[in-house]
Amino acid sequence: MPRTRLTAAERGEQLAAAAVQAFAVSGYAGTSTDDVARLAGVSQPYVIRLFGSKQRLFVAAVQHAAARIEQVFRDAAERSADLETLGEAYDELLAERDLLAVLLHGFAASSDPVIGSAVRDCFGRIYRLIRELTGASAEETRDFLGIGMLLTVLAAMQVIGPGAVPAQPWMAEIAGSIHDTCTEPEPGG
Amino acid sequence: MPRTRLTAAERGEQLAAAAVQAFAVSGYAGTSTDDVARLAGVSQPYVIRLFGSKQRLFVAAVQHAAARIEQVFRDAAERSADLETLGEAYDELLAERDLLAVLLHGFAASSDPVIGSAVRDCFGRIYRLIRELTGASAEETRDFLGIGMLLTVLAAMQVIGPGAVPAQPWMAEIAGSIHDTCTEPEPGG
DNA sequence: CTTAGTTGTTATCCACTGATAACTAGGCTT
DNA sequence: AAGCCTAGTTATCAGTGGATAACAACTAAG
């Protein structure tokens, strides 16, 4: 029989995961602490007690998502330490759609100084990790992140990924251009 | 002596502009209709009366921003119809920081079906406009938009643009990589 | 001057939300 | 079994925000 009561650390972890799920949908201002609480099966005041404020809960969610993203990249680099392989890892990130979504909401909420600082920190860590793992140049990493941000935005708009809206011609064109480049045979290969 | 009372159409335009400014800071859920009203110097209920709902006001703001972005690209293409010139136009967009910010908040708020539909429409128009103006391939346009999204996100995080935070090494590296590619002399030139 | 239509306001409502305080209950140690 | 710490709850509040309704004031036509 599973323990009914968790330690504060365990509950904190569980709440951070729930926060990722909840904030991924409607963002910082659009999500209530009660949404997160219900998702985790606890009362709303307890969420505030554990994290101190909604702001800190959101920061925890962003850091939780960023840590998972880093892990996915690290796992990919384990297979092969180049940008192409890390690019394939984006498929996993797009499958776990909450991760990139919550990061995007972090970008959007960066006008709050505390959130902005935390989000910049997470983004910087990911940037440096990619460079360290692959040894790519600044320009290559920039292009890689550019495509990544485009994918993130397209996923948020439900143009790609699970739950995508019926495709318009331009959507198929962009989606196709991404798939083509990632899977195209080597020139002359 | 200037007219004190505006026609509904004029006031609507003015409110849309104010909405861009207001929503650019805190996004859809984080901005009150009263913020927009005060910025335009009218009462909050009047804003609702003119637009029907906060949702429609936000959609109007997104469309207003997208139209201005299209105009900037069109003006740039007037000078020279290639991606490099349109890339330079990003400097203007980053200077008018509200435009890209409100679009980003639109992406983030796309889980609302009405907003999502409007935002996809705007994005699709911009995509097609870029292709039509420059004749670029789908892959080139994708890369162009990728860098664009990266710039948009970096601006939202206050890593680049006006009001940027003190630079960390990784920030200088990314910012440098963008500037370098845009201004570098032709190979062998 | 009067009437009518449109621009705009004030007053008000109700639902929601983050946060606090006070209380309850499970579980470990002695 | 008694006591105590920690996990969790219920009750409650003060502020906010979107929306409605009723009213006021400017302007133009006849």
Mean pLDDT over the residues of chain A: 94
Q: Let me know the number of strands of chain A.
A: 0
Shape of chain A: globular
Content of β-strand of chain A:
under 5%
Describe the structure.
The structure is a homodimer of 189-residue chains. The first copy, chain A, has 189 residues and is mostly helical. The first copy, chain A, has helices at 8-30, 33-40, 44-51, 54-79, 83-95, 97-108, 113-134, 138-156, 169-183. Chain A contains 9 helices and no strands. Chain A starts with 7 loop residues before the first helix and ends in a 6-residue tail after the last helix. At the A-B interface, helix 1, helix 6, helix 7, helix 8 and helix 9 of A face helix 1, helix 6, helix 7, helix 8 and helix 9 of B. The first copy, chain A, binds a DNA duplex (30 and 30 nucleotides) through residues 4-8, 11, 32-34, 42-46, 48-49, 53-54.
